[in-house]
Amino acid sequence: MGLVSRNTTTSDAELPAAPVQKTDEQWRAQLSPDEYQVLRKAGTERPFTGEYTDTTTTGVYRCRACGAELFRSDSKFESHCGWPSFFTPLAGDAVIERTDSTLGMTRTEVLCATCHGHLGHVFAGEGYGTPTDLRYCINSVSLTLEPADG
After folding, report:
1. Candidate list 63, 66, 115, 137, residue with the active-site label
2. What pLDDT does residue 16 have?
């Protein structure tokens, strides 16, 4: 998988303590190199390469690092942007949103509230016909899909 690397300039000191905390060595042992680069170093998958970009399976999307429930398939929509898109997280406290001023622009980064893993970014006001007019643009490698029981 091709990844785009970037460094986060926002300090982790402003975040509340993560309920799940591991050392860098523990994260490296648990995650694949691609998962580690995205979840722990705020990398980005190349567009249209992730396993969940076009998935329509009914179920719950969980954080690949800690297993926390993040999004449900009924909030996933086709945005044609190259990454899985959701119009709302599972619950208001499932994710943390913070300002990301890297790459010469200001965006809103989305982190898992349980382990502070980087998930992607959220964008507002793009005109999608969703209930929230938000697009949570999330890296597939940050997620696992738990299909609903048949």
Report:
1. 137
2. 80
Q: Determine the pLDDT at residue 150.
A: 55
Question: Are 110 and 117 spatial neighbours (Cβ–Cβ below 8 Å)?
Answer: no
* Number of domains present in the structure of the chain: 1
Mean pLDDT computed over 57-70: 97
* Mean pLDDT score, 56-66: 97
Nearest CA to 74 out of 92, 61, 93 is that of 61
Q: Give the CATH number of the domain where residue 79 resides.
A: 2.170.150.20
Distance CA 136, CA 84 (A): 8
Q: CA 8, CA 10: separation in Å to the nearest integer?
A: 6
Q: What single DSSP character describes residue 26?
A: H
How far apart are the C-alpha atoms of 59 and 62, rounded to whole Å? 10
Q: Which pLDDT score is estimated for 12?
A: 56
Residues in the chain: 150
Residue 137 annotated among the catalytic residues of the structure: yes
- Range of the structural domain that residue 53 is part of: 3-147
